[in-house]
Amino acid sequence: MSFPFYDDPSAGYPPDAYHGDGGETSAWIRPADAPKEIEYAAGGSCEYLLTGPQSGGKLGVYKWSFGEAESGPDPHFHRSIAELFYVLEGEVRLYDGRGWQEAGAGDFLYVPEGGLHGFRGGNRASMLLMFTPGAPREDYFETLASLGRGATMSPEERVAFMLRHDTYWVDED
């Protein structure tokens, strides 16, 4: 997704999205002790902090917590969404298209549409995953969790699943 008004730094802010006069009561909070939406068989979890539908399709934010053993996707890219990673705790390896980089708490990686990326972590590390625009990633995360618990998918179903979720795998160079 490109934002032409950002190509010119003098353009300022994006166009108004809210046109009321006095603001509105529309904020909401997700308590820290809210249940995790997904618990993975390998011990990790995914918490839905803000889904695409909740943000009107603008943004998706998820807290990804790794289990003890290392896990995470190999290099891939998305055609329609940008992805952002912010490491909260522990060490995470992030693939930036050139190679695997060690990242720790406070490190951030931005991946524009088409950017090669991947991530791997373990030892209970955690990070924020953010997508813009807010694609419906929940089915992707939930299906991966079910596969980890023994569900199966034929090679043809897997290809269709990945394409439906804008995920294109590449070989590491």
Automatic annotation (TrEMBL):
What top-level branch of life does the organism fall under?
Bacteria
Q: Which PANTHER family match?
A: PUTATIVE (AFU_ORTHOLOGUE AFUA_8G07350)-RELATED (PTHR36440:SF1)
Any single Pfam family the record assigns to this protein: Cupin_2
- Cupin type-2 domain segment(s): 70-120
Q: Which InterPro entries match?
A: Cupin_2, QDO-like, RmlC-like_jellyroll, RmlC_Cupin_sf
Tell me the classification of the organism that encodes this protein: Bacteria, Bacillati, Actinomycetota, Actinomycetes, Propionibacteriales
- Give the protein name, as stated in the record: Cupin domain-containing protein
